[in-house]
Structure formats: C-alpha cells, structure tokens
Design a protein that fits this description.
- The structure holds two protein chains of two kinds.
- Chain A is of the alpha/beta class.
- Chain A has a single domain (7-230), classed as Class I glutamine amidotransferase (GATase) domain (Rossmann fold, 3-Layer(aba) Sandwich), CATH 3.40.50.880.
- Chain A is 25% helix and 25% strand.
- Chain A is globular and about 45 Å long.
- By secondary structure, chain B is an alpha+beta fold.
- Helix content of chain B is 35%, strand content 28%.
- Chain B has two helices and three strands, in the order βαβαβ.
- Chain B has helices spanning 16-27, 50-65, and strands at residues 2-9, 39-44, 71-78.
- A three-stranded antiparallel β-sheet of chain B has the order 2-1-3, covered by helices on one side.
- The longest helix of chain B has 16 residues, at 50-65.
- Classes of the chains: A alpha/beta, B alpha+beta.
Chain lengths: 231, 79
C-alpha cells in the first residue's frame, strides 16, 4: 500500500506573499498542500501547518501583531497546543512570536536595510520534526528576505533557550544583528518552529540551492508519520 | 476622552533608527546623544471617566499596542 500523502495547511493572511511558494514546495515534496483562509475559525483535518512569509496586515504596528488576532491564528494555536506541527517562515515566525507560541520578538535589522540574499546557516538540532533530514553542524544555504529579522530576547530568556536546546538554526555569518546569530528557534515541546530564512525558496537546485528541501521534507515526513498513526 | 500613548523601545535595546537619526542630526551640526525613535498612538475612548479610560488604555497596551519584550509605554489623557 502506498504511504498516505500528508495534509499540510498553509494559512493565507491578507498580505501573505509566499503562501503559493510554500504550497508549491510542499506539493513538490509529496505532501497535499492545502490553503487555509485567515478567516477560518477551524482548521480542516491537517497533519501540519505552515505560516508563510509576507507582510500580513501590512506589518502595521509591529510585524505579526495584527495577524495574531485573526481567527485562523487562534485555530493554529489550538492545533499547536494539542501537539500539532507548526512551522512559521519569516512573517510566519514573527506571527508565532507575537502570538506567544515562540519566545522572543523580531526587530528591525541592525543595518536598517532590507536584506535579500542567500545566507549560510548552521544546524543546531537534527532531532526535530523539522530537521530530521539535516545533520547536526551541517551548513545550509537558504535565502533570507526581510527588513525585520533581528531576533531578540532578554539575556535571561536567551540562556534559558540555549539551556533547553531551543536554538535550531544560526547564521554562519553576520546577517541582521540577531542575538547569538539566531536564525530559527523552536518551542520547548519541539512541535513549533520559526525561522527567518525561506526554505520554500530553496527546494530545487535551479533556484541556487535545494537546502530548504531538507527542512520541508523533514516536515513532510513527520506529517506523513502523523497521518500513518491515524490511518 | 482623548488618549495619547507613547511607545518607546526599552532602554538597553539597540535602536538602529534612533542611532541613524542621531547621526543625521550630528551631520546637521547639532550636538545630541541618546536619540531613540518610538511611536505615538492617538485615540478617542468612549468614556469621560479618567480612571476607566486609563484602565482600558492599559489593557490596549498590554494586548496590542506595545510588546512588553521590547517596548515600554506611557499614557497621557486629555480633557
């Protein structure tokens, strides 16, 4: 019997602009990718959720601050609280931080410049549902494109995260001024992850790098295992 | 009642906008230091009871207008 195609939702907020790339990349990696409109109060039957990049609600007030109150975000919160897999990319990461699903906050880049380029990253965790295809210490090249990507948390919280091994990815060169060069983190339970780089833009060598596929394929695999346990 | 909310980056948090403004002012010949850039929110609350308005605006700040990790806020009530 063929293994089931896992169902992965991508939430579309007003102002999301990487939603279609995320849907395409997940489909290319053999998931059934399902768009979820931001007004949905309940998620369809899903094995994982992706919050895509973009500028939800125009990034008004603070990035992700308004999206936090959309009905779909409340449903995603419930999904995550029940142990569901949630990956936030760029603006999705900002939303997860504002919604309290991930610690810290994303501030304006130290340079005040919008950064749009491929960046080298180092994998700090290879045992998460988002990183099983990666190896600890592996160097990935994945593009970033953001104006507000400087992850920040007060020193006490940072040491707590480091001690809990919640840092998943670090920039391997100076990028945006993030504390400890942090590019991606997870929650304590390990079922919610956010990252500023865009894995969905790096799933095919034609795009310059296929390293993003390692992260998304890990997620697809974990979602497939979830689907299998329900089957 | 009209309320003004001043939202500031917390002290100790790097404020690159403030630093850029400070450099620009120095280029103009002003001798300044410690420039920080924040936000102002003006709004009208449907009540004339200052205590109640302040309590409501505090809630707005905690729930939406400021992120306590990085920002502090100050509330001014008018009239």
């Amino acid at each position: 019997m063929a293994s089931p195609q896992p169902r992965i939702g991508v939430v579309m907020y007003p102002g999301s602009n990487d939603d279609h790339d995320a849907l395409w990349a997940l489909s290319a990696l053999d998931a059934e990718s399902i768009p979820v409109w931001h007004e949905e109060r309940e998620l369809p039957d899903l094995d994982a959720v992706v919050l895509p990049g973009g500028f939800s609600y125009g990034d008004y007030l603070r990035c992700g601050a308004i999206a936090r109150f959309s009905p779909a975000t409340a449903a995603v919160k419930e999904f995550a609280d029940a142990g569901g897999l949630v990956l936030g990319i760029c603006n999705g990461f900002q939303i997860l931080c504002e919604a309290g699903l991930l610690p810290g906050v994303l501030l304006q880049n130290e340079s005040l410049r919008f950064i749009c380029r491929d960046v080298p990253l180092v994998v700090e965790r290879d045992d998460l549902p988002f990183t099983t295809r990666c190896a600890h210490g592996q160097r990935l090249v994945i593009p970033v494109k953001h104006g507000d990507g400087r992850w920040f948390a007060p020193p006490g919280l940072v040491s707590e995260l480091e001690a809990n091994r919640q840092v998943v990815l670090r920039y391997d060169e100076t990028c945006n001024g993030s504390v400890d060069d942090i590019a991606g983190i997870c929650n304590e339970r390990g079922n919610v992850m956010g990252l500023m780089p865009h894995p969905e833009h790096a799933v095919d060598p034609l795009l310059g790098s296929a390293d993003g596929a390692l992260i998304l394929a890990s997620l697809v695999e974990a979602a497939r295992n979830h689907a299998l346990t329900l089957a | 009642m009209r309320a003004t909310i001043l939202v500031r980056p917390k002290s100790g948090i790097l404020d690159p906008q403030g630093a850029a403004v400070e450099t620009a002012l120095e280029h103009l010949g002003f001798s300044v230091s410690g420039a920080r850039v924040g936000k102002v929110v003006d709004l009208e609350v449907a009540s004339d009871d200052a205590t109640e308005v302040r309590a409501q605006v505090e809630k707005m700040c905690e729930q939406l207008l400021a992120n306590p990790l990085m920002e502090s806020y100050e509330i001014e009530l008018h009239g």
